[in-house]
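This entry is listed below:
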Amino acid sequence: MSNKIKKNDTVIVRTGKDKNRSGKVIKVDGERVLVEGINMVKKTIKPNPNRQIQGGIVDREASIHRSNVALLNPQTNKADRVKFKVISPKNPGEKSKKVRCYKSNDELVDL
C-alpha cells in the first residue's frame, strides 16, 4: 500500500454523489479517506450530561474509498495521478529522497 494521498492534500472526488467536488483530506485510514465537506451523512448522537453533549442529529463527513478520489493539480486545476521519484542528493554523504510528483507535468506535490 503506497501513501499517494496524505493528510492536508487537496483532492477531487471522481465518482458518487459528490463527483467533481474538491476538498481537503482530514484523515487517511488505510484504504479510506475523510474529506472536508464531502460525503456528508446525518448521525444521531445520544445525550451525555457528564460531557455536556446535548444529543440530536448532526451532519458529519463519512469516509470515502481512496480509489474514488484523485489529487488536484493546482497548475491545471484538474485531477491528476501521482508517481514517486527518487531525487539524488546534491552533497555527498546525504541520503536520496523519495518524493511525490504529478504524472502529467512532473511537478513536485510537496513543495
Remarks:
- The radius of gyration is 18 Å.
